[in-house]
Design a protein that fits this description.
The structure is a single chain. The chain is mostly helical. It has helices spanning 4-15, 25-47, 54-66, 72-85, 89-98, 109-123, 134-156, 163-176, 180-192, 229-236, 246-258, 263-270, and strands spanning 204-206, 216-218. Strands 1-2 form a two-stranded antiparallel sheet.
Length: 275
């Protein structure tokens, strides 16, 4: 029985596939992905029955299908690691990215490099299978960002707050492949809401909900430094799509927190007619 990478090399030779022929790029990508599915659908069940049970082959198949959004090189890497260790290491990397505040705002190669270096440093002891895979780790983080950004846009679109704000969200998405609506929702729900230490002084009020932990609610009517925007803008305001857009950002945060049908939000937005 041969390994996945050997099977792919064999099939490439049989089909005379030249991965350096840019004129056949799309065809080559499709063929490479097909080779992976051939391996798990056809080759393993026939050649590897003594080492892989039907249940194991089914799990391989399911995992391979879950990776279809990514390039053949990355599919090959993750499936090989899974075959050897049983770890779906892409999920570990995804979890790291999902917990990284700058991930959804990344757009330059240097942004993805920084995230990938930090990710490698944190995960290498837990997942030694990533050793010497810094380049493919970087590539996966870029591809995962593209997948998440597109998915969030296709599922939810952009909020229709005002003509100017919506145009800003659309322009950022088209020019930088950054979904600001998703980034701000993640910041407010996953970081700000759960961390009262981030709340500006005087904005913490006692909650009437006995199930609230901690037992406080954020007082969004206290306008000074709404949603700790000063700290957020200090950290990310140098990005071209946020530079000079602090009020846009505040309006987007208020909309995300309250929703368009909230009376307080409608009155709040009416104060800023130029937006």
């Amino acid at each position: 029985m041969i390994r996945l990478e050997e099977y792919i090399a064999k099939r490439k030779a049989e089909d005379h596939l030249n991965e350096f022929d840019m004129g056949q790029k799309l065809s080559n990508i499709k063929k490479s992905i097909d080779y992976i599915f051939e391996y798990f659908d056809n080759y393993l069940p026939l050649e590897g029955a003594e080492n892989h049970s039907a249940e194991e082959n089914e799990r391989f198949n399911k995992y391979a299908k879950a990776l279809r959004a990514y390039s053949p090189e990355l599919c090959n890497l993750f499936l090989t690691i899974y075959d050897e260790t049983g770890h779906q290491v892409n999920k570990t990397i995804q979890k790291y990215c999902d917990n990284t505040s700058e991930f959804l705002l990344a757009f330059e190669d240097s942004d993805f490099r920084t995230i990938s270096y930090n990710c490698y440093a944190e995960l290498i002891k837990k997942r030694p299978c990533l050793k010497d895979e810094t380049e493919r780790l970087y590539q996966f983080i870029k591809e995962y960002h593209a997948v998440v950004t597109k998915r969030e846009y296709e599922y939810f679109g952009f909020p229709q707050i005002s003509e100017r704000i919506t145009a800003w969200l659309n322009d950022t998405y088209i020019k930088y492949n950054v979904n600001l609506a998703a980034a701000i929702q993640k910041y407010l729900l996953d970081e700000f809401d759960n961390n009262v230490d981030m709340w500006p002084p005087g904005s913490k009020i006692k909650s009437n909900d006995p199930y609230n932990v901690p037992p406080y609610e954020y007082n969004y009517k206290k306008r000074k430094n709404l949603f700790n925007i000063n700290s957020y803008y200090s950290k990310f305001g140098n990005k071209p799509f946020l530079k000079g857009k602090k009020k846009n950002l505040e309006i987007l945060m208020m909309f995300t927190w309250l929703g368009e049908k909230d009376e307080y939000f409608r009155n709040y937005l009416a104060e800023f007619k130029e937006y």
